[in-house]
Amino acid sequence: MNVVTRGVKNAVRSPLKSGAIVLMFAISIALILSMLVARGSVLAKIDDVKANAGTAITISPAGVMGDQGGGDPLTAAQIATIASTANVSSVTSSLTDQMTTADTNLTSSLTLGSFGARQQRSAPTDTTGADPTATQTTRPAPTPRISVTGTTDANSVSTTGGTLTISSGTAIDGNSSSSVALVGTTLATKNNLAVGSTFTAYGQTVTVQGIYTTGNAFQDSGIIMPLATVQTLTGQPGAVSSVSAKVNSSDNVASTVTALKTALGDKADITSQAEQAATSVTSLEGIASLTLAGVIAAAAAGALIVLLAMILVVRERRREIGVIKAIGGSNGKVIGQFIVEGLTITVIGAVIGLVLGILVSGPMTTSLVSNSQNSTSTSTSTTGRGGRGGFGGGFASAQSQLNTNLTQVTASLTPQIFLAAVGITLLIALLGSAIPAWLTARIRPAEVLRTE
Amino acid sequence: MLTVENVSKTFNTPGGQVQALKDVNLSVKTGEFVSIIGKSGSGKSTLLSILGALDNPSTGSIIVDDTEINKLSGGNQTQYRAKKIGFVFQQYNLVPNLTALENVMLALEFGGYPASSRLDRASQLLESVGIEEDQQQRRPTRLSGGQQQRVSIARALANQPAYILADEPTGNLDSATGKKIFDLLHDLSRSQKTTIIVVTHDLEIAGKTDRTFTLKDGKITTK
Q: What is the Cα–Cα distance from A241 to A238, expressed in whole angstroms?
């Protein structure tokens, strides 16, 4: 029997006491690992959200959101101002409209439903205003409408923020004024449209150049045409209902928003995903701080548990330590024995704690994030109200998706996090064992006789 | 030869300084069996702990076989205790979670005895003090007081020490068992020429030793 075997044997000398210490230590290690995993995952998510928030700034005429609200469309001069603003690398302009059955020979692929009917009832149809009561009775029955987006870049309609998926045909040139269109896949199916087919819009014949698909039922029932074409067809030359400006770097988004607000004044509403993302990740940053505090608290608790337990052990075995020294045991052997004992307890506790931590870190991260996001979405729900929207509501839908993504934080235990947890555990073990071991060195063998 | 020259020992206590030993002088020849008697608090245990290098005197010197042990470094004093001294305590002081055999092997380890022959040596020693094979595997709590003291003596003998220092070795035993333990120590003294210094308050035991020193209020009054 040597120092190591004596130390290990002493660690299991009192199974109940050692078991309790191991359990407490294991819980603190599990907490450390869970908090590290939660922190790592949340920080990764924050980076991800910020990186993917993009550099897009959306500029709408003041008071307009999609097809709702009131005000004047953006003018060509304002578009030029936007395009010439520092750090703006590209500008995509859009004008949205809705075709009724009088405007087109196409049939909407959307069912009206109670929501659509309510929306149309709220729109005034009697322009004379002579008899409000009579208006109610002469109003035509609501019919589903077809959304039309005129844009300089068809990709701006993509719900993913990337390139619009063209399932057949080719993309349109947004800067042309041709009577061509991309038709959403469900609208095309509903009206038996294929590439090369034609349909009537605002009294003009338009040729289908491609069929696009986004996976979004609303978007896939719409039509995309070049901006100038829609402006001409709807009799709104130069009018733009939404502009998406790309900034050259995410670092310049905030300053560009400020510059645009100064340049456009109260004529435009300006929002950026980066700003929204920064607000959205505030709660995640709160979790990251909370988990860091949790790691520190759990590590301190773990160290204190081992420290106090080992100090108690040393106090209990004061006489035994004196005897070992009296019969020729060196300080080194006594200290070694106690360090091995402390390490044995911490290693057993650490293994149990790490396994426990791996098991609970996923649910704990999910719980932390979802609780936090629930409270955030309640408090910010008023800011996300976008109305009916049309394709101009793309930004609102992107923002909604951003919020949804925030709750989808996946707890992932990386080797770095695992090594950090093991490192903290070793530090705790050393701190918790070294001080009591040092105390053993101070016990004088003469105390064996003196206490008799 | 063990010589104590002008040894005094003072302790600092909350109530002030206490002088446990006052200018003690004595010498013990090799192979001698001596006893130190005195009332409780007379300084017997203090003297024994100084002789065993468990403590250092405040003044004076302890010379063991031409070595002034109180001037040795901590590490050398540990070596001195491991190889030259065997302790027998009143309360046996066996390590509770080790078996009788392991307790003796522990002393052999500290004395630098080869690991391969520790088991045989420990078993042989325990048998020589009357601890049977099945008792050797027991922990101290499963042995009687007399048996524990025998294990304690076997442990003290493990490294063939030149000196055995026994502090009230029969103090916790009934008279019959106490006599057996004393006889065991006496036989050792005779057969192995081991110098034995016994601290006791039992005058009958003291009477059977070669010489008796009497301590009173920290001073040697009778040699």
A: 10
Geometric angle at alpha carbon B64, from B59 and B67, rounded to 5°: 80
CB spacing of A9 vs B54 below 8 angstroms: no
Dist CA B111 CA B79 (whole Å): 8
| Interface test mutation site (partner B, options A325, A327, A443, max chain B beta carbons within 10 A) | A327
On whether any CB of chain B is under 8 Å from the CB of A330, the answer is yes
Q: Please tell me which of the candidates B45, B78, B97 has its beta carbon nearest to residue A328.
A: B78
What residues of B are in contact with residue A330 (Cβ under 8 Å)?
75, 78, 110
Q: Residue A317: CB partners within 8 Å, gap ≥ 6?
A: none
Lowest mean pLDDT among A218-227, A385-394, B205-214: A385-394
Measured between beta carbons, the chain A residues lying within 8 angstroms of B167 are: 449, 452
* Distance, CA of A447 to CA of A297 (rounded, Å): 38
Residue A314 CA to residue A309 CA, distance in Å, equals 9
Say yes or no for a CB contact (<8 Å) between A326 and B78: no
Question: Is B87 in contact with A320 (Cβ distance < 8 A)?
Answer: no
- Residues of chain B with Cβ-Cβ distance to A448 below 8 Å are 54, 89, 93
Q: What is the pLDDT of residue A384?
A: 34
A2 inside 8 A of chain B by CB: yes
Per-residue confidence band for A126, with pLDDT thresholds at 50, 70 and 90: very low
The answer to whether the Cβ–Cβ distance between B102 and A450 falls below 8 Å is no
What local confidence, expressed as pLDDT, does residue A141 receive? 65
Do residues A393 and A387 touch, judged by C-beta distance below 8 A?
A: yes
Task: Give the closest residue to B122 by CA, choosing from B141, B140, B103.
Answer: B103
- Rounded percentage of chain A residues whose pLDDT exceeds 90: 12
**What is the pLDDT, as a whole number, of residue A198?**
93
Average pLDDT over residues B197-222: 87
- Whole-number CA gyration radius for chain B: 17
Q: Which two tokens stand for residue A96?
A: 């949205």
**Domains, chain B, ordered by start:** 2-222 (3.40.50.300)
In the predicted structure, residue A437 carries a pLDDT above the cut 70: yes
Predicted ipTM of the assembly: 0.91
Three-state DSSP at A69 gives strand
Residues of A in contact with B52 (CB under 8 A): 326
